[in-house]
Amino acid sequence: MIDSIKKNVPVVLGSGLFFMLIFIPSLNARDSKPATVKSNGERLYMANCEACHMLGSNVIQPEKELVKSDKLATRKIFKEFLSEKHGVMPPFQDIANDTAGLKDLYTFVRKLKMTSWEYEPKNEPPAGEVEPRVPTPPHNAK
Length: 142
What we know:
Cytochrome Bc1 Complex, Chain D, domain 2; mainly alpha
């Protein structure tokens, strides 16, 4: 009897190892959620802007929504705006002086603007520019 057990040990261990190699990784794969990949612009927005400009709004001055800002008309205007202090908003010189970071943030904020406004652009604006839009006054403005 001991001899038959000794003969079957490699088969039992091999079967257990096979099970662990095949089935355990697939269980972990099903339980894990896919990571969302954020663009550099989104990361910059979340780190520097989101606290006061949630979803393109403006927590400090609600009537001055980010998504309706004329400061998004061109990347140059956006850069100039970020370079200076405005009310309680500090200057973001590090982003304004980083060409790639500025472009990424500008692109991300423009997408917020386009998805938030629900309008059909007549013609595609040239790369890096957005047609200036006049903000509509709040519904309770006189």
